[in-house]
Every structure is written in structure tokens, then in C-alpha cells.
Amino acid sequence: xxxxxxxxAVVGVAGRFPGVTGLxxxxxxxxxxxELLTRFTPEQLAAAGVTEQERGDADYVPVRGVLDxxxxxxxxxxxxxxxxxxxxDPQHRLLLECAWEALEYAGHPPSREPGRIGVFVGTGVNTxxxxxxxxxPELLAELGALPTIIGNEKDHAATRxxxxxxxxxxxxxxxTACSTSLVAVHLACESLYSGDTDLALAGGATVSTPQxxxxxxxxxxxxxxDGHCRAFSHSAAGTxxxxxxxxxxxxxLSDALADGDPILGLVLGSAVNNDGAAKVGYTAPSVAGQxxxxxxxxxxxxxxxxSVDVVEAHGTGTEMGDAIEVAGLGEALxxxxxxxxxxxxxxxxxxxxxxxxxxITGMIKMLLALRHGVVPPTVNHDRPHPDIPFAxxxxxxxxxxxxxxxxxxxxxxxxxxxxxxxxNAHVILQEAPPHPVPSRxxxxxxxxxxxxxxxxxxxxxxxRLADHLAKAPGWELADVAHTSRVGRTAWPVRRAIVxxxxxxxxxxxxxxxEPVVVPRRATLTFxxxxxxxxxxxxxxxxxxxxxxxxxxxxxxLDALPAGSADPVRAALLDPYAAAxxxxxxxxxxxxxxxxxxxxxxxxDWGLRPQRMIGHSxxxxxxxxxxxxxxxxxALALLVARGRxxxxxxxGRMAAVLAGRDRVAALLPPDVQVAADNAPGVTVVSGxxxxxxxxxxxxxxxxxxxxxxxxxxxFHSGLLDPVLDDFRAAVGAVPHHPVSTTxxxxxxGEPVVEGATRPAEHWVRQLREPVRFREATAELxxxxxxxxxEVGPGRALTALVRAAGGGRVPVAPTMPAEPGSAAxxxxxxxxxxxxxxxxxxxxxxxxxxxxxxxxPLPTYPFERVRHWVDISAPAAVAEDGPAAPGTPAVxxxxxxxxxxxxxxxxxxxxDLLGATDVVPDSDFFALGGESLVAVRMLSRxxxxxxxxxxxxxxxxxxxxxxxxxxxxxRLPDPGELATQGERQ
Length: 983
Known about the structure:
By secondary structure, this protein is an alpha/beta fold. The protein contains 38 helices and 32 strands.
């Protein structure tokens, strides 16, 4: 970094630390001044392999910072086969989990981040390989050298995160011993400014196994004699080891502010150097080197060091290290600072020395202190060490929590981390900029979404969200809803909640509906209702609350022919519109406009229908949104259509609850079928007397009839006198190819992309029956249909639901009557679509423009044990009594097909760790990948004498398919038996 660069925002954080389950617990422990180390019992030490002689040594110190649950891992979530997860260094696994959680904290999951996400991480010494895996040579031989190397070498920690999470920025392993993770932060900041990354993960992990082991104290060594790290204290004599992991997410400040990210703090400057040879030994620290790196960071930030209030030191509590560090701080920062001196602290007495994760842990502590405005105490500090020059450096160690007052500007702190070997890192942090209180848009509801890989995960996520919200009463529903949509990956098991307020959300999280498993691919259809669905003021609420709808409605009103705009506007926006608003020349363009505007809004939100269908007037909205008609032309035609209909004799319409053929047999001569809506719903139209006569006939036949509110006989012979005039109007406008398939209500057949409807279509569409039943039947042939009724009312919702036998997801987007709030209905429609697999563009969907990302609970991993115990017998597999690769001995002679299939299943079980392999199992669905595939095909060649190309597995990755391919390549049916004898 250099002077003039904008700050880097810390927008996400995650970690695993001894003795706590999360960041909130960590902060409470730090403020309370608690030591979180574990002192082991003799039984625990014996179980971890510590000999009786070691345990009995007076200098043996049975203390370490211990992490819970390192044996468990959600391998399926990250796509690792169980066997691969079992041989993976737990440090790699912790970093994978922390990387995901940090990105979710930031509200930028990989699936929703278009930019390049970089990874800069490192790990400590891999004791899992040495102490657990190397004692299982048969397991390593079965899996192969390369998977073992990838799962355990430090080189692959960063790149595996990039691969498993799909990250495309720089992925770099950082290895500088104790300073690893803070060096990673510096490199991540540089990568942001170089443009290699747009968002960066930085951190590190250390896990030494078995965890329940202490160390032997050596005078003047690194380890503390009594298992207590006493940084900067007169009794400091060494540190204590601990296990942990931490990752932060970094972004350029301008990007973070633009996206409304949850900013924890700012990185103002950072620097890295090395001591070189100017010190007493390789492992010794250097005053000059430390002072230089601190000065470099402050110079690059362009800041006066006197503005720093708190220093989070490396602070190991060793005899030499503490004194040298304070001397270096004094040389770089000077003694001038806040009244009473700068506060000096270290997190190592709380948690232990976390090695590769030490620097990031100190940074996380500083970020939490900046956010809370409190400086935690340094524990185990009874009085200052007399040989450390605190006064000359303007420093003091606080032994109780102290408030962090602002000194006329933002709070600033700095963090140091120094590695064995001399690589030093220093980072300057500042509190997050104040978040302005936005002017909130008033809404009656908002949409919160929750998803997971399994129903159990969704239930757990809902519980965690409810618990979290109960502890964060100040959060706005709009922020929670926005974060749930844009800040989380959409998994295949989903639940959506339309909540009126926070209390309603909490109630539904506890008692709401069960999660829904979505299909792989849903087919979305927009259905636009026809005349009769409208009501006065039907667009008023949408016009007031949705700018996209308002813009289209206003543009449409401006495009209306002279004299039509005012009455149509009243029909749309005035719930008390005059009776004249029932005229077709007003209701038809009004109905069209609200359907067009709402449909365009849904398109803006990323809902892309594969089909559109319209009922009578609704077909104009479908063709207009599909590109077949221009807005102004559609409006002109509808106004002309309405005026012509008004010239026709009075008519009546009725819905007969019977099928078309049965109704046709009862029709008087002057009454026609106007719409074949559904198998049991037929609409008729004609002169009032004729419709009354049909009603009487239906009553005699026991058929129910419902009047349709219409003063004209649409789709009947009453319109014949005006058809030529309408033909002239339609012929005067251009007709264009559609870009989305429209299911035609005139023919019941699809008008596919690129097709154009001739002018005569619209003439016939006015006069002839609506064949909605046939069009709906075509709609239902699509794969996993999902239907949204785009317009007022629920008429088409009922028809499609009945046609689909109640199995087709269909939802209205608008209320059916005046006085109902429009937004909740629209949100429930979006909820239906999303839970059925439709993917809106949530970034474009923002009811409250001021909504921002807030830290919500992260994914509830479903961890299971993936672990190799030190004492595990070499002949016992993780998932069964048989050793890997040991096939069952058949009782009867096997056919070649049975033998090959058995070998394939055994190989998949051994190499993937899968227990439920059957002939139809998919290799890649079980977590297989190319390296495992190569190993498996090699084993098949060795045991069955058959070579199957890798491309065959890609074509049919099932046991059955691979068996067929192998049998096709056997030179002779008897060769398999010969092979078995040779084995």
C-alpha cells in the first residue's frame, strides 16, 4: 500500500478458537479476562499416547488451547468423498469452513459474487499426516500418493479453497511461521489494489494433533513452566501452544460502501519485512527489523503514529521477545500518544500461541475492540516486567477492560505479528465509518429466504436465524430480508417467508412451513388474466410502492390516444372511480397496462418465463412483453377494440360449471361458447334472453351457472358488425416476432420464438372462443411448470390449479379486490416461484433502496466424523469391518458380469468411502473426481484385466454403465476367472 490509496474494508470474519463456539463468545471471554486453555488429566494424556514416563516428568506441562470437534467435517457440503475427507489435514478443513463462513458473514457467497475472489492462507506443521496417517500405509496405498499429498501439503491449502468454492482470484499459500496469517492480510490488500482480486480471503490455521498433549518445559525456552502465558509481566517465562483458525474478507472501501457491506473496520496501511542476519540467531527477534516494519506501515498509510490508541502485540511472554517488541514499538511509534499512554495487549495469554493463525487472531481481537469501543484486558499480567521500557515507548498494559474513547477522530489500533525466521508484519486498523441512518421505505411486508442442502439444514438455519434475531433487536426487517436473498447461496432445499415485521418473522421461523425440495429445472409461465378480473384502483398500491411499475404505468398512460388517459388513469389508481370506468374502452387498456407494467417489473427482477399465456385481453400483455407488439400499438388496438365493442348490442356472459361438449348440447341458437377454460368450466356469451334461456336449461340439468360481470357479449356473434372496422385497425400496426414462446388462446398451440402473428389473428381472437383449456394442457406438458398469474385476481390461478390436479405450483401476483395490500400477494408469488426453483435476480430486487447486508448466521454445517485414529488397526476401514479393497468371497461361482460389478462397487466404497453404492449410483454424485477415477480404473485393470478409458466413465458414470463398458472389453468370458486365480 502507499499514500493516497483508499482504505481496505474488512467486511467478513470467521474463526475457530479454543474454549468458545463463535465470535460473540470469544469477545465475551476477552472482555471478561478469561484464559481459555485446557489442562489435561492423566487419563486424557494417556489416551493421546503420552507415555507414563512423560506424564510423570516434573517439567511436563499438560496444557494447550484445544478446539472442539476437529474430527468432524461436512464433507458432502464441500464435495469431498468421505475417504478423501478422512485423509485431509484438519487445518485444510477448518480453512474451508472458515472461508465459507467469512464470505457469508460478508454477504458475498461465491455463487453470487461476479468478481474475482482471492485466497491468501497458510497452515502450521501438519502433525495429522505424521501422527495419524503414516501409521495406516494400507489406506494411503489404496488412495494413492497424489490425493494424500493434495490433502496434506501446505501448498494446496489456498488452491483447494479456490477449487472447492469456485473462486477465480489469486490463490496463494503463505508460509512465514508465526506471522503467516498477518502476512496473508498484507498480500491480500496488495492484490486488491493490483486488480488481481476484487474481494480477498486472508488468514491461517494451526491444528496440532493429538490435541490432548502438552509439552516439556525447558529453561529459557519458548514454553511457559506453569502453562500460563504472562505477556509483558514480570513473571513472563514463555508461551503456551494453542490450536485455532481465522479468516477475514477484504474489499476496497468504495466497493464495500456501494454494496452496503457489513464493515467491521478498515485497513489503513500494512507492511512486511525480514530481520535478515542482524540478530543473535535464526529464531531470535530483532528490534531494528520490527521497528522498520512498523514504521513502513505507518509511512505507507500517510498517518502520524501518535493517532494510535491501542497496540495488539505479538506478545508471546518470552523473556527476550517481549522486551525487544516494546523497544521496537517505541522506536517506531515514539512515546507521544493519548493521555495515559497507548494500551498494549496480547491475545496469547487467553488462547495460547496459535502459530500460523496468531496474527489473524490478534487482528480479529482488534476489530472486535474497535466495533465495541472497549479494550479487553491482558490476562495473567500482575505487574509490568521491570526490564521492559514501557514508559519510553508510551505504552501501558491494561489488566481490566477499559472503554476506548474517541479522541476527536476515528479510533485506530495496530497489530504486529513476527515469525520465527524473521518475517515481520504490521497492520494499521481503524474503526468502520459511521453508517448513516437511512430514510426507510415503508412496506407492509418483506421476503426472507432460507435454504440448505438438506431439510435438516434448513430447519437448523431457521432456528439459528430466529435465535440470532432475538439477540439483535435493532436490525431492520428490510436488512435481514435483503441479506438472506443476496448474501446466501440458493441451495436445493428451500423455505420462503413473507413477514409483515420482525415479530411476524420470528413467529414464522419457529412455526412455519416445512422446507421444499426444488426440481433441478423449473419452467416458468406468466399467465395474464382477461376482462372481468379488474377492479377500481387495482394498480394504486403497486404504483405507489414499486418504481418500476410506476414508470411503466406512467409511460403507458402517456402513450394512450387523446382523451383516453384520464379515465384509464382513474380506473387504475382511483378505488372510487366512476361507473364509466366499466366501459371496455377503459377497462381493457387499464387491465392491459397493469399486467404489462407488473410483468415488466418481474422481468426486471430476473424472472425469465419460458412461456407466456394470456386469456383474451391478457393475450395482448403476453405478446407485448414477448416483443410481438409495441406498447403504443397494443394500447391503440385495445382502445379501438373497446370502443367497437361498446357499439355492439347489449350482451350477457355466464360461467357454466360443465365441460364444453356438455354445454354445447344445451346452447340456444344465438348463444356461443366464449371460452373453454377448463375441463369443468365453460363461459358462454350472447344476447341477454339467450343466456337466460341457457341458464334455465342448465338448472333443469342440475348444472350450476355463475353470471360473469359483463355488459357485452365478448367472443360471440354480437361482435360480427364491428369485425371489419377492427380488421382495419389491426392492419394499421406492425406485428413483430416474439422472443418468448406464447401459448395462444385462439388455437391452444404455442407461438414459438421468432414467429409472428398476422393481423387476422387479433380479429379472430376478438370473435372466436378462448381455448384456454387446450393452451393450459400444452403448458402442463413442460418440465416442472410454475405459473404466476400476472394481473389482478385469482381466476387463472384457479383454472391452472384445477387443470393440474392441484399439483402445479401457481400463485397470483395481485389481490382480487379493492382495499387489499398488493405487496404481500406479490411477495408470496415470488416465494412460490423461488421455492420451486425459479432464480430471480435478487440484486435487482430491493424493495427498500436503503437495505444493506448485515451479518446473519452462517450455514449450519452437518458435520460427521471423518478421522483416522492413531490407534486404529490397519485392517479396519472407517465404514466397516472389511479392509479397503477386500471383496466379499462369493459362495457360488460368479458370472463375469457379477464379478466385475462387485469389483467396481468395492473400489468405489474403498476409494470414495461411500457405503451405499448400488448399480445405479453415480460416481460423480458420490464425490468422485478425476484423480479418484484414474485410481479406480487402474484397480479395475489390475483385478479384472480390462482397460476402460476415462471418457467412458464421463459418458455413463454409474456402476451399471461402467460394468457394461468393462464387459464389452473383456477379451474372453473365461479370462476373468483366470485373472481371479492369478490374484
